[in-house]
Fold each of these.
Amino acid sequence: MRISSSLAAATALSAASAHTIMTQLIANGVENGVGVGIRVPTYDGPITDVASEYVACNGGPNPTTPSSTVIDVTAGSTVQVYWRHTLDSDSTDVIDASHKGPVMAYMKKVTDAATDTGVGGGWFKISEDGYDSATDTWAVTKLIAAGGTQTIDIPACIEDGQYLLRGELIALHSASSASGAQFYMECAQINVTGGSGASTPETVALPGAYSATDPGILINIYQSPMPAYTIPGPSVFTC
């Protein structure tokens, strides 16, 4: 079977160091340093097994560095996280442009954000962006154009307390074959204040929220025309 030159080139790039890390959290007007309140990995590679426990907060093949910091975040506020190719990269080096796919954010209420592994139930999605067919633009492309800044609205109606805030990209350049999708995620450790507690989100488990055969995970993004794209995982929780 022959594959297109663009697909072949993208497949070759998947083996190169074209990966990414969520490095910093900006909250309440404070730009926290690299790795402050985030379990950043020592390697910028992906997780490719959706059934792995490491799909929650990374680790395993990408050993993460603990942080004792829990960052204060106001419910109803907007935070930003920075994505970078490596811990030393700047806003011009986010992720290779071939790594097209969706960008999402999840939260999980925990007792101790500095020690909770994130594995298991309790996760709810708070933002997502996928594919815009009108402009033929993927969310990762927008992220690169924004210098690696992912903007996330924290729901105003959740309970106060400590949470894990999980940013995620899924690179789909090699997703036409099994286990070809690349998952990039990190967990920030936050303490939410000012929430009304008026709503309780429905939650999912990580691993468990994704299947390797989900149409948003096992997909050939080089189809022309590109069909409507279904972002994997649950619906976005809103107040």
Amino acid sequence: MSDDIEIDTDDLERRMDGAMGALRHEFGTLRTGRASATMVEPVMVDAYGAMTPINQVGTINVPEPRMVTINVWDKGLVSKVEKAIRESGLGINPQLNGTIIMLPIPELNEERRRELTKVAAQYAENARVAIRNVRRDGMDQIKKAKGDGMSEDDQKFWHDEVQAMTDRHIALVDKALEEKQAEIMQV
């Protein structure tokens, strides 16, 4: 292997890991019938004239497996936070208790569980596409290096390295999807 031409596999690995991190975050926003603070993260509140993430207007807690509470810091925003949750499409009916908004998480019916598994599958497919795009960038680097005089043996080595990295990350996506779908379908 020539010492002067190398492919930046650390960058490719970091970008593939980034796609996995994004997938985990998206999976965290899916409702599974169990309470999770991440499920309300995408909710934006009209606070002080700007759309603000819900976690910047109050403290989000999970006191029980089927309850999320949001302790709103500014009393004037309680009604706006409640409205944002109702309009978010989470399918949760907030209950007020002073400045604390309680979100009881209802059981999911079979049809909604199946819909959520399809959404999870779509998130996983988006992660696979992102990983394949990083793979393509790695292969483009190898082609460019070929033009710069990389030997065929080195090309084969780097091609196999990038492909192995891609296969490993795709397997991680598949495993994460399988676990999330099992979690969603669990009654």
Amino acid sequence: MKTHHLYHSGTHRWLFFGRDPDKKNNIIDTNQYLITTPKRAVLLDPGGIELFSQMLTAVLQHIDLPQLTDLFASHQDPDIISSLGLWDQCLENATLHAPWLWEGFIRHFGMNSIKYNPLPDEGGQLDLNGITLQFIPAHYLHSSGNFHVYDATAKILMSGDIGAALDDTSAPIFVEDFEQHIPKMEYFHQRWMPSNAAKNDWIKRVRQLDIEYMAPQHGAIFKGSMVHKFLDWFEQLEVGVAIASN
């Protein structure tokens, strides 16, 4: 599994974990993100149950396990949170921040020790040792209860399935040629994003943020001008094609 520092300023870090060369061919590759501060850290979309041992090993190379006080699940899909039951056995004092809508479903993955913080539809904030993380609503993109994470200090938006692409594990971590990247993500967004109204609401909200990196759950990360290219492209894209084609 590859590890990359997206941001490192003193004790405040963003780390990317992904591009697992040992993953099974019929399993979608996922990106996981760890935000660390001196005493606390949060793991964003921790991954599927099949990835747990690799993720635990990767995380322990950067922090001690008691420092991992928080987890975040953007929505309920198993590829991002089915490892919860195993994290639950490792973490004695942690909180999972996830949409209120999916609590009854996410708990099926296993929660005895980890506490559940149900995020209201309008979002919220998490103070991580003085670093403020914002939970940005992204409902219906593609889940009906869905959030992204924005760090204004690092200028990073963890964008869940928005910006996701089906890429090879040997592909670069960052988008290098936007036009060549479009075929890797176009149909996914057209089919999995059901609402143009929800899409446009998200774009309007996100354009107000200062973003240097847009870090999706799958595929390459958008950096600098590539962020704006993606927003312009996504804005003109018609989504919900399964309905439109009937």
